[in-house]
Amino acid sequence: MKTEPNDAVDLDAIDRRILNELQADGRITNVELARRAGISAPPCLRRVRRLEEAGLIRGYHAETEPSKLGWSITFFVIVGLDSQKESVLSGFEKTVAGWEEVRECHMIRGGGDFLLRLVARDAAHENGLTQRLTGITEVSRVQTLQTIRTSKNLAGVPI
Predict the structure, then answer these.
(1) HSE-up of residue 19 (Cα within 13 Å, Cβ side)
(2) Is 5 among the domain residues?
(3) Mean pLDDT computed over every residue of the chain
(4) Cβ–Cβ < 8 Å for 72, 121
(5) What is the CATH number of the domain that holds 39?
(6) 37: number of CA atoms within 13 Å, CB side?
(7) Residue 7 counted as domain residue
């Protein structure tokens, strides 16, 4: 049952418990997940597979500690472009998609065209990334916002 990203999928209480538990701990065993969902392991695994096939579960990953891996700075950038033509928008997205430091890229409205979340090793690296952005021909405005502290950073969405 393949669905498009915006297609609503009927979820019962068990599906919601499964999704909630997997958002909190993607490494949970199927046996423990089934216990927490109140069902046995085989139907739990079938439900997880169905949720994956429906596109509700996009993948599994490890949450790493950036500073321990040498990425001491997280910052956001609001980028304004010269034009909102689709070719310019998609060209910008393609350009920054190739930068390993760009961790998120969102097209926005109300104050810019894109909001990016980037990581940098140090202030010089951050400045270099900002210069790379301002050097893109179609970029007319760059506003950087450095993260001082993060008090909440939850994966997923409320279920």
Answers:
(1) 21
(2) no
(3) 94
(4) yes
(5) 1.10.10.10
(6) 28
(7) no
The pLDDT of residue 4: 52
Are 26 and 94 part of one and the same domain? no
Query: Can you give the CATH number for the domain in which 97 is found?
Result: 3.30.70.920
DSSP-derived pairing of the beta strands 73-81 and 114-120:
antiparallel
pTM: 0.85
pLDDT in tens, 101-152: 999 999 999 889 999 999 999 999 999 999 999 999 999 999 999 999 999 9
Specify the residue for token string 């997940």.
33
> Rounded CA gap, 50 and 134, in Å?
44
In which domain, by residue range, is 90 found? 66-146
Residues 70 and 142 in one domain: yes
Query: SS3 letters for the chain?
Result: CCCCCCCCCCCCHHHHHHHHHHHHCCCCCHHHHHHHHCCCHHHHHHHHHHHHHCCCCCCCCCCCCHHHHCCCEEEEEEEEECCCCHHHHHHHHHHHHCCCCEEEEEECCCCCCEEEEEEECCHHHHHHHHHHHHCCCCEEEEEEEECCCCCCCCCCCCC
Pair 101, 134 in one domain = yes
